[in-house]
Amino acid sequence: MGYDMGEKSVQKKKFILETARKVFMEKGFKKVTMKDIVDACDISRGGLYLYFESTSQIFLEVMKLESEEADDVFSDSITEDATAADILILFLREQKKELLRKNDTLTQAIYEFYFQNKLSKKDNILKKQFDAAVKIIEKLIEAGVASGEFYCEDCMGTARNIMFVLEGLKISAQTIGITAETVDREMFYILKSLGTAEEKAEL
Amino acid sequence: MGYDMGEKSVQKKKFILETARKVFMEKGFKKVTMKDIVDACDISRGGLYLYFESTSQIFLEVMKLESEEADDVFSDSITEDATAADILILFLREQKKELLRKNDTLTQAIYEFYFQNKLSKKDNILKKQFDAAVKIIEKLIEAGVASGEFYCEDCMGTARNIMFVLEGLKISAQTIGITAETVDREMFYILKSLGTAEEKAEL
Amino acid sequence: MGYDMGEKSVQKKKFILETARKVFMEKGFKKVTMKDIVDACDISRGGLYLYFESTSQIFLEVMKLESEEADDVFSDSITEDATAADILILFLREQKKELLRKNDTLTQAIYEFYFQNKLSKKDNILKKQFDAAVKIIEKLIEAGVASGEFYCEDCMGTARNIMFVLEGLKISAQTIGITAETVDREMFYILKSLGTAEEKAEL
Amino acid sequence: MGYDMGEKSVQKKKFILETARKVFMEKGFKKVTMKDIVDACDISRGGLYLYFESTSQIFLEVMKLESEEADDVFSDSITEDATAADILILFLREQKKELLRKNDTLTQAIYEFYFQNKLSKKDNILKKQFDAAVKIIEKLIEAGVASGEFYCEDCMGTARNIMFVLEGLKISAQTIGITAETVDREMFYILKSLGTAEEKAEL
DNA sequence: CATGAATGAGAGTTCATTCAT
DNA sequence: GATGAATGAACTCTCATTCAT
Q1: What is d(CA C32, CA B2) in angstroms, rounded to the nearest whole number?
Q2: B177 and A31 in contact by Cβ < 8 A?
């Protein structure tokens, strides 16, 4: 579509993306066909092709929306007077929610998509997100160490470790299944390693 | 196939599984069709159906073979006079090799398979393998603590943490890509947390 | 469109026909879709349907324009003091130019159109053009014979023969390809058969 | 199909080609879809793809069969004691039959195919056939001149002229339509130009 | 008049699965 | 047991044509 889309078209495109998102959450990526999305949106075959030319393109745009929304949620939740520990716990709590949602998540679809599309480094949004998350956690830990909330010798190593643990939990949730207890224990372990073993219940 | 198969059949079945394994390593799970396997084995379409009725069944049997072989490798490599640290390092070294092989691994296929077939807990080989590995690592750490090689307050927590880190590295290798350095740093971090920060180079 | 069209509409219609002509020259007839013409004209899908209801209709009108223009060109080029041989050579020279333009011609589109639309004799513009051309050439030869320029026993037969040779060259140009030399030789042969074997170079 | 086909497959392939030939004669080339051929052969969609992967491939093989058969017909019809004039007349008679069959011919399909597939010179079977035919006619005329049957100053030129006339008639038969009389007149004209104006009726 | 979003029929193609030999 | 031809359901994608605005 080289031409500008009117307001109506923009809304329809958004509607398709939101509907497709649900389909991807249910079925993952590979299994989803253009017809699945057509049916879910209750539009015509050709109609979908007016907006998107493949499931890959749709999925990429779904992910773009997704990460924008995620950014919003995260920045919203950081208040001025929150301590580093507060924010970290908040972050982990969000992750836990996500982890336990299992079938209500794009996780599986994202993994499948990346299996199918071995993207070059610079196109790899997933990698960018991962690296960005590591950076943020690192800063957080540093701030916590500075304020005396955390104890940590190797902030970057710990940040990376946290992210790999979270990745491990994420994929495990999809394959072997994990319980809330498992997540709690891991997160408790993370906090403990920072010297802040607070109450488990808080998550 | 409720009936006995002759020697010839057994060999053919094994041949199919070994060939299929290569196909799964190349293409993952979902992309593989019965025809792919038929072509790779250079047998007839109908012939394959005499032994297996779906790619899922074939894959399950490939995984069964795989884990049997893996067990052998691991127990072979444990000598009588090896210390806990030796064995752990050996284990991590094996994991590293596996992680960096990327395209020569069943990892992606396994994940894809589990995405598609949400198995009940008792059928979930992956979970069994995960739990077994946690147990072994835990015992290892306990042994190391007993012998003074390691320092660790929460052996089980640490074992679990190690496994989730490994899982995180495994999936990351398939999606965002990881370098040998990344693996080294994580493994170094693991050892350091046990109080055994030896030389990185050793892996 | 039974109603009168304003000046604006007439111009737009002409614009569409001229643009469509280029499209037909590039792609032939069958391959051209309404969308191709819509895109080339940079108008709306529905807009095109206001003027034309099918590619066939458009093509027919393009051909109508085409033959009107061709007539003009031909009558323009006949001056009062030109001899029969002059005019014939002029005609053949025009044909040669047309033949060698190959991809810049409606020829292929015309053939495709007539393949698809087996028109009744009275609707067949192509036939009318062919017969008219035969007539003109016949008159020309007769004039040449009268003036002593040509020698010919059977003017009509020769005229027909010339036209079929030209048709043969035209279709051959589109299918097996012809060189300038081939055309020259054929035209030289035509002139020679009329006893006017002038210089080949003249064409 | 990289493997050898059994006797059965060969027959089925031939059956498909023969059926497809009829379809091409009816509809030309472009209009014909894989489904048309599937329906005509009364086989399954997938079944056709076992033998051919496109209408182009099918058409090429149909043409190959066609030209093989044509060669056979031609060489069969040349007897030892036939004169050059006999053979030429025989040839023209065959052409006439072909020309007047109109809708029972591959001509249109062949032209359409070559419009769509602008083949390089060496792949262009049509060109090879054309050149071969010119050669044969030339030899025939030379033989006729030698035996005193024909009079001809430029055998090659005449041979080419004959072929272009035949091409012109062929395409005209498809577009503007021609009558038996038209063909007779042209062929009579050809023979007359060779000094052998025999009886028209003979064709 | 003009627009362009929407429709849906239909073409191409692939593959798991069956079945006569 | 083994073969491989055959089937047909399901997918992708394109386009003429319509119609509300």
Answers
A1: 61
A2: no
